[in-house]
Amino acid sequence: MNRKVEQGDATRAQLIAAGVALFTERGFAGTSTTEIVRRAGVTRGALYHHFADKEDLFEAVYQEVEKEVFARCAAASAGAADTASALITGLHAFLDACLEPKVRQIMLRDGPAVLGWERSLSFEDPHCARRLLRRALHAAAAEGLLPAEHADPLTHALFGAVFQAGYAICVAADPAAERDRAGKALGDLVSALLSPLRCRRTGPHEDDHTA
């Protein structure tokens, strides 16, 4: 690789690392670009060479944190015995991540406010946790655990529930206790959703016990 390109990549990585640290400590609004370049050990010109503004840097920081969470959820679900267990294990991994300061501040607090809900939860990002959830629900549908036409609507509904559970962990007086409550509730919800009995096509009189 060209040395100049390597130096540019290293500078960009330094800025992102500084952004992760400062946005976690002080939040987006409480962090200045002066503090970022000082923490990164680079010039202001270097910052604006790689990023248009502070929001652009924040988006790169958000993606970096999101990528870590995605990898953790994917790794956790990969070892599960079946699709339902993989989905539940992945959700638990996400909730565990919500106990970490950088996830709580960058993904749950500042992400939707700075980037907007549409961008922060976009399917376009290959490391979006919602995309991983969608993949799992389509796999469940392929196995007959839920109707195929329900996979996409359930992706939105279930991710909304998971994200709000994460935010509840973020603002709770006792985050660990809230995480345990959320994990139990969401695990029970997913187990109920993925029951093969829900896909059974009943006849017109099968459930009529009055005849």
TrEMBL record:
InterPro entries: DNA-bd_HTH_TetR-type_CS (IPR023772), Homeodomain-like_sf (IPR009057), HTH-type_TetR-like_transc_reg (IPR050109), HTH_TetR (IPR001647), Rv0078-like_C (IPR049484)
Signal peptide coordinates: none
Annotation: DNA-binding region: 32-51
Record's keyword terms, sorted: DNA-binding, Transcription, Transcription regulation
Xref: PROSITE patterns: HTH_TETR_1, HTH_TETR_2
Organism of origin: Thermomonospora curvata (strain ATCC 19995 / DSM 43183 / JCM 3096 / KCTC 9072 / NBRC 15933 / NCIMB 10081 / Henssen B9)
Sequence ranges assigned to domain HTH tetR-type in this UniProt record: 9-69
Residues forming coiled coils: none
Domain of life: Bacteria
SUPFAM superfamilies with a match to the protein in the record: Homeodomain-like
Protein name: Transcriptional regulator, TetR family
MF terms (GO), sorted A to Z: DNA-binding transcription factor activity; transcription cis-regulatory region binding
